[in-house]
Design goal:
Strand order of the largest sheet of chain A: 1-7-6-5-4-3-2
Number of domains of chain A: 1
Largest sheet of chain B: 4 strands, mixed
Helix content of chain A: 10-25%
Largest interface: A-B, 21 and 15 residues
Strand content of chain B: 25-35%
CATH topology of the largest domain in chain B: Signal recognition particle alu RNA binding heterodimer, srp9/1
Number of strands of chain B: 8
CATH superfamily of chain A: START domain
Shape of chain A: globular
Number of strands of chain A: 7
Strand order of the largest sheet of chain B: 1-4-3-2
Distance between the termini of chain B: 24 Å
Order of helices and strands of chain A: EHHEEEEEEH
Shape of chain B: elongated
Radius of gyration of chain B: 17 Å
Order of helices and strands of chain B: EHEEEEHEEEH
CATH class of the largest domain in chain B: Alpha Beta
Oligomer: heterodimer
Strand content of chain A: 25-35%
Distance between the termini of chain A: 47 Å
Structural class of chain A: alpha+beta
Number of domains of chain B: 2
Number of helices of chain A: 3
Structural class of chain B: alpha/beta
Number of helices of chain B: 3
CATH topology of chain A: Alpha-D-Glucose-1,6-Bisphosphate, Chain A, domain 4
CATH architecture of the largest domain in chain B: 2-Layer Sandwich
């Protein structure tokens, strides 16, 4: 699948810690974006049902669950792949997110590859009228915001950093 | 500066931006922090970081954005990398990756040890490491230049 973005950020944590924070705590650090919402409703809370048969879901305030995608690769703490479908996607329209955690010693490089946007036509509502490349660039910027949010979350909750 | 961008960054045009990105990682130690690919697989946008610096590597995206390889090797700007240590090792790494080193590492009158090279498409890069702190007076005495600094 082409039409993809790749972003990467070094975080001050081990791969174990980063993988755990990314998956187990996604409901805390995730920041919804009006541009990349999963359903037309008020955004809910994201969570992974972990494991190789698991999935990523969004649970709205009323308890309704929207399945964003199935987990297709679950290899803690190095690699994670899951589907990303928005409610407005039609048949055959599906994207996929791969997250890699490269151990660099004191740091971990977290790389997100979001691919498959060629299955979602340029005129699709999910693209908000943006030209393809501008849309992808906005998506890349959004993922950098999200990775920074994971990093900030880990900084806030590090067991080695006492509360001020 | 994890999700922000510095005030100043530079965009470079290459005939083959994908090869350039791989080369810049290998030769100089850049890390690719964003890559946007078009449906045909071409590089639409990229950002590479080294320390607190950012460059954007792209194609020859207009008639006025060209790689030196397309304009007889001419450069109108050069990028300087200021590194903290081991400039000789940095140079050896760049040379091993295929950089054309045309000025070997040498300690300059202003206290930096620098080298200059061209990448595979002819972009000129200069790399320096401060090895000695030299006062303006000493530099003026050594060169006859008049040196003014503010701030």
């Amino acid at each position: 699948m082409s039409s993809r973005i790749v972003v990467a950020l070094r975080v001050a944590a081990t791969a174990d810690r980063a993988f755990s924070a990314f998956t187990a705590d996604i409901g805390v650090w995730w920041r919804p974006s009006p541009l990349f919402r999963f359903t037309p409703r008020e955004p809910g809370v994201l969570s992974f049902e972990p494991g190789p048969e698991g999935r990523l879901i969004e649970t709205r305030a009323g308890g309704k669950v929207f399945e964003i995608g199935r987990i297709t690769v679950w290899e803690p703490p190095l690699r994670l792949v899951f589907g990303w479908r928005q409610a407005a996607f039609g048949p055959g329209q599906a994207t996929e997110v791969e997250v890699r955690f490269d151990d660099l010693g004191a740091e971990t490089r977290v790389t997100v590859e979001h691919r498959g946007w060629d299955t979602v036509p340029a005129a699709h509502v999910a693209r908000h009228g943006f030209p393809d490349l501008m849309f992808l660039r906005r998506l890349g910027d959004y993922w950098l915001v999200l990775l920074s949010a994971v990093n900030a979350f880990m900084g806030r909750t590090s067991p080695e950093t006492p509360e001020p | 500066m994890p999700d922000g961008r510095p005030t100043l960054s530079s965009g470079l045009s290459y005939r083959d931006p994908r090869a350039a990105i791989a080369w810049l990682e290998k030769a100089f130690g850049f890390e690719t922090t964003m890559l946007v690919e078009a449906p045909d697989g071409s590089v639409a946008h990229s950002e590479l970081r080294l320390g607190d610096g950012v460059i954007m590597v792209g194609s020859e995206w207009s008639e006025d954005n060209k790689s030196p390889a397309s304009v007889g090797g001419k450069n109108t700007q050069t990028i300087h990398l200021q590194i903290e240590s081991d400039v000789d090792v940095h140079c050896a790494r760049a040379r091993a990756a295929g950089a054309a080193v045309f000025a070997e590492p040498e300690t300059q009158f202003y206290g930096d040890r620098t080298y200059r090279c061209k990448d595979p498409e002819g972009h000129i890069w200069t790399v320096g490491q401060t090895v000695d702190v030299v006062s303006n007076e000493a530099m003026e005495a050594a060169t006859g230049l008049k040196i003014t600094t503010n701030g």
